[in-house]
Structure formats: C-alpha cells, structure tokens
Amino acid sequence: MPTKHFLSDKVSHFTESVIREMTRQAMLHGAVNLAQGFPDFSAPAEIKKAAQEAVAADVNQYAITWGAKSLRNAIARQMGIWQGITVDPEKEITVCCGSTEAMISTLLAVCNAGDEVVIFEPFYENYGPDSVLSGAKPKFVKLRPPKDDVGEWTFDEKELRRAFDKHTKAIILNTPNNPTGKVFTRTELELIRDLCVEFDVLAITDEIYEHILYDGTEHVSMVSLDGMRDRTVTINGMSKTYSVTGWRVGWAVAPEKITNAIRKVHDFLTVGAPAPLQEAGAAALSLPEAYYMKLAEGYRVRRDHLMPALTMAGFKCFRPRGAYYVMTDISGFGATDDVSFARTLVSTVGVAAVPGSSFYHEPSAGRERVRFHFARRRETLEAAVERLGRIKAGALSA
Length: 398
Ligand SMILES: Cc1ncc(COP(=O)(O)O)c(C=O)c1O
Fold this sequence. Notes:
41% helix
C-alpha cells in the first residue's frame, strides 16, 4: 500500500464542477439542459466547409506553436476593425486550445507566488482555480445585482480600490459577463483603468461574448482605452462567436514581452491548437458584419423567449445585456439552498440549471441564485418553457 497520498495540495481544494454535474443529471432525467453553456444548433456552413477543406488538404500536423499565420493575421485584422488597435500578428498573438488555455497560460506566465489577482464575483468558475494553479491569491470584489429587472449589476468603487495594493499583479475582467450578463460601461472600465495605472497592474480581459450584445449595449475593449495598450492581455476565441465550443481554438493578444512568456507556457502545456480548425478560424474571422448582427439578434430572440417563462414560473430575472445567460433569484420559492433547488428542478420539472453558489468563492453568497443559459434552438427552449409552466402547477413542490 502506498503511504503517500500522491495528490497535489492545490488540487485538493478544488471541487468538481457543478456545471458538469448538472449536465450529467440532465442526461439522467431526460431534462432540457440549460446548465452548461454551449449551443445545440449548427455552426456556420462556411466555417465547417473550411475545416473540411483543411483536413482534405492534409493540414494534419502541428501548426506553428503560437498559431497558424492565417489565423493570427485574421485576428490582428479584426482587432483593428473592432477594437481600433494595431496588433503585430508575429509578436503579439498566441493561439491556444480555447480561451480556457489562453487564460491559464497567461496567469502562469505572469504570476509569482504571493501575487494577488482581483476577480469580480460572481465569476466564471475557472478563474479561481486558474489563479490558485498559477500560485496567485484571488481577491474577490462583489458585483451587486440590480434592484429590478431593468437595472444593471454594479460594483462599489471603494471596495474595488481596497482590493488593489502592492501585491496586486492583475485583474481578471470578463465583459460581456458570465454569469450576470453585465456589460461593463466605458466609465466603469476607465475607473478600473485608472486603478491599473496607479497600482501598476495588468488587466486580463476575457471577451469571448463580445459579439453577443442586447438593447443597444456597446462592447468596450479594455485594450482600446488610453494607457492600457501595454498592460492588457485580451483573451477571445471561436467557441461562442461561431458556436463551436468543441473545436478548442482561442487566443491571447498581449504586448510582445508578455506574449513571449505566454508562448513558452502554451508550448509546454499543449504545443498547439488543432491545426485544421485554426485554418477554419481564419475563415470564420472573415465572415461579413451581417453574421454578427444575426448572431446577436438570434440570442436576443432566445432571451426574450425564456425570460418571461422564468418570471411567470416565479424566478426573479436579472436582465442580461450581453452573453447568453440569465441569472435569477429563487428567494420567491422560499428556497435557501441553490444546489438542492437545482437538483429538484432537474429531477421533477425536467430543466437543468446551474446553482448560483458555483459562481462565488463563499458558496453562501449564491444560495438564492440559479443561472440558466439560452444557447438553444427554438424547439429546445419551447420544451423548457412548457416544463417551467408546470412549476406554478406545483411540480417543484412535488
Ligand atoms: C467567460 C467564459 N470564458 C471562457 C469560457 C470557455 O471558453 P473556451 O471554449 O474558449 O475555452 C467560457 C465558457 O463558458 C466562459 O463563459
């Protein structure tokens, strides 16, 4: 019998992803899965064709470690068009296996033991473990929910300032935001920018929902603000914009020195992202502007389909301005434990959602919340709406 327990202390603190548990529960109960955020509809035909052509043309071997030239050129071109900044595709872009790998490669490239990383919460669940894996200590700043369904999530300026000190290495920012649907305003970003400059801090921004915006909201990229070009890592990817979460193609755009470090970590972690799918990425980034309008409008229709059904069923919804999630308040059900609420919802109503506590470092902060996603075909959402309609008829108390 071995006498050592063999496991890393870092990993012993990680819990299993509740999001993936909910996906398993959804399969078990034949439920509509509105938990894990991936689309159940087709990706654009043009990009599937580009992927097929790349495989047929024998693009089968390792791409250049930091990314195929065609994709890096396309990313640089689009950053110029969308963010108005000039990026050198040879020196400032690293293509990774999804934005997930871009984030952990960045944190491993910039953090030392004892560094602190500021994270807004509720947060996308990878950021906490990512910071721990990179040796940094996460420091959380609360996003406060709006009072009514038309208000915005906000943060307290003084609380944010208190989170910055001489140990702060970076702030992780996700806009449009998962799970709240918040889109940070230019004024908020300028305030964060001022703190980054004052405390000499790096901004690491996850912008994978940048094209999924509602109600005339504008996406502002941190790197485009005065003073941020040299202290921002912009992370993005194909998963959400082109509905291909399984392709695993994402990227980090950063100043040359930081890119060199990210490239080294990326090389040792994964060598490279899938070569033929990077070629398809170059085709995706060449789609016309109309594609992005249609994408956002499609999600707007889905949001406006699901939200009234949730409200009717008794959930208080926080209206998202971007991304494809609705965060809800379940206190109207008298529920005090989000996890058992979500388990009952999946087993008795047949709709899977994510318990709010998975988005907070202190689970107690999310006990009255549950998140739904709406990256689903009309028929799937209709099935969810029909099932949610059973709640008022007593299904949830069964
Ligand atoms: C905020 C955020 N970042 C990153 C990811 C993962 O992106 P990728 O598929 O590019 O790794 C997700 C997926 O849900 C997400 O919501």
